[in-house]
Amino acid sequence: MNTLTLLPFIVLIAAMFLMTRSAKKKQNQAAAMRNEMQPGSGVRTIGGMYATVKEVSDDTVLLDAGPGVDLLFAKNAIGAVLTDDEYNRIVHGIEHDLKSDASVVPDDASSLTETDEAADAAAADKPVDFGKKDEQDEKAEKAEKAEAEPVAAKADEEPKKAEATTDAEPKKTDGESDAK
Prior knowledge:
- The chain has 180 residues and is of the alpha+beta class.
- It is built from 4 helices and 5 strands.
- The protein has helices spanning 3-35, 84-92, 117-125, 135-164, and strands spanning 42-45, 50-56, 60-66, 69-74, 78-82.
- A 5-stranded antiparallel beta sheet has the order 4-3-2-1-5.
- The radius of gyration is 40 Å and the shape is flat.
- The termini are far apart.
């Protein structure tokens, strides 16, 4: 046979070997994790239940799921062994403070205001920009202002003209027409 015809088969066999090797590696890691379980460890089952290990035997694990609730599981049903901090955070909602030397946060909003006068002066000098306007928006605003000013000026002039000429016909506004 030609070596070019054997090349796809060789590549396929090599790929299968690499995939089975990585799968075996993961299985060995999971088995080592399950063997390291000790009474008192927090675990998560493959079904998503969190519990504390009470007893460990060769193939089974006795879990304490709550007060007076003991459950017997196969070792293979344990999905993860959790650290104490992680278990307390998930089950009890207790956050472990990593910064034990951190300052205490006050309960009121007084710490949110700045007391430094230089910071206040710097903030007062800077204009506040709430959003960037496009050039089209700026042109539209200028056009609206330009239209609004002559209309307001005409509105002020109309009552003066009406007082001067009482027998003149009232002027038509933009919306009116002669067609009936």
